[in-house]
Amino acid sequence: MMRALKFSFALSVLAILWSPVASHADEFRLSNNQRISCGRGLSAGKLNTATCRSYAYLFDIKTSEYYRCTVSLALTRNNKEVLNVQSDGSCEKKFRIFDTDSDYSFDATETEPPNTNSFFGQGGYAIWASDNNARKVRGCIIISSGLGSDISKCVDMKFK
Fold first, then answer.
1. String of b and e for 45-61 (b: at least 16 CB within 10 Å)?
2. Which residue range is the domain that position 64 belongs to?
3. Where are the alpha helices (DSSP H) in 46-151?
4. How many domains does the chain have?
5. Which of 59, 94, 103, 134 has the most CB atoms in a 10 Å sphere around its CB?
6. 102 DSSP assignment
């Protein structure tokens, strides 16, 4: 079952990456810091459901715009067989990190999945971008306000 889950997840990620958005291979880069989180619901003698979700970021190295991509897989089984597998994925365009075009590098990371320690609903993510032509680094944190909107703040790094 775990092998089937990994295979389905890999296929979903590949489908996202081969979308028309990534057709300009020389302008877009995938972040290096993908994470996966899984949860499951267990009920003795009943159906069990495992749900996994992962996020990745596709970054336009010229404009500093990025896409936040998510892929999910839900597997439902009983004690003898897998009954249902559902997967979904999409990429959502986000804001520019820098105002002008240049040659940028980029990475991102997700907060932990929602749990009892999560104050702001679905959590958030951090974005780091740097200008490859100048000593310029910007760090951004984006969190869910818990009221249906995201709050984002970017800070230019000072070099000492």
1. eeeebbebbbbbbbbbb
2. 2-156
3. none
4. 1
5. 59
6. -
Tokens of 42: 């267990």
150 vs 144: CA distance, rounded Å: 4
Provide the residue-wise pLDDT of the chain in tens; the chain has 160 residues. Answer: 555 444 444 444 444 444 444 444 578 888 877 777 888 876 666 788 888 888 889 999 999 999 999 899 998 888 788 888 999 999 999 989 999 999 999 998 887 655 544 455 566 888 999 999 999 999 998 887 667 778 889 999 999 9
Token pair, residue 128, equals: 């780091």
- Enter the pTM of the model: 0.69
Question: Reduced to 3 states, what is the DSSP secondary structure of residue 13?
Answer: helix
Cα separation, 111 vs 56, in Å, equals: 13
Taking residue 114's Cβ as centre, other Cβ atoms within 10 Å add up to: 14
Biggest distance spanned by C-alpha atoms of the chain: 62
- Identify the CA nearest to 111 among candidates 37, 46, 58: 37
Phi, psi at 6, each rounded to 5°: -65, -40
Contact status, residue 151 vs residue 110, Cβ threshold 8 Å: no
